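Trying the structure run again after the queue cleared.
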Amino acid sequence: MSNHGRARIALLILFASVAFTARAEELRPAMERANAEFLEAFNRPNPAGFAALYTPDAVLLFGGLPPKTGPEAITQFWESQIKAGVRDHTYEILDAWVDGKYAFQLAKAGVQVVTPTGEKMPSSGYTVRIFERQSDGAWKVKIHMFNRQGGPQMSGVK
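Done. Tokens:
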């Protein structure tokens, strides 16, 4: 291979790495916005706000329970958690990456479970969400998985 050919390959590698880094840097704010929208719906609470965050074929897998499919079923699930006393939801992004029209987010999630007597018990775990880029550029959740790590069982889980 000629020096000219090697130089072209080196430039292609450089441009590809710069483009990948730029996409990764652009992803973090999008994932923070997605989290803020979810937390707004959960913590306000505004259960009607959940449906717009999920794709029509979205699936929620929550700690060994049967899957919830579609925005309506997922909204009903989150509403049941809120009614059962689950409050103060948080997310801390641990990692996020993009591959084409899909973005992947790994986050630590936490809530407070408020008992009927008013006692607050923390519960936390990890969530993986796979987002699908929509034609308007927005990211919607296609698959949402949560695994609880110790702590109290969240009441009202159905």
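Strands lie at 54-62, 68-69, 86-99, 102-114, 120-133, 139-149. Worth checking whether this holds up in the mutant runs.
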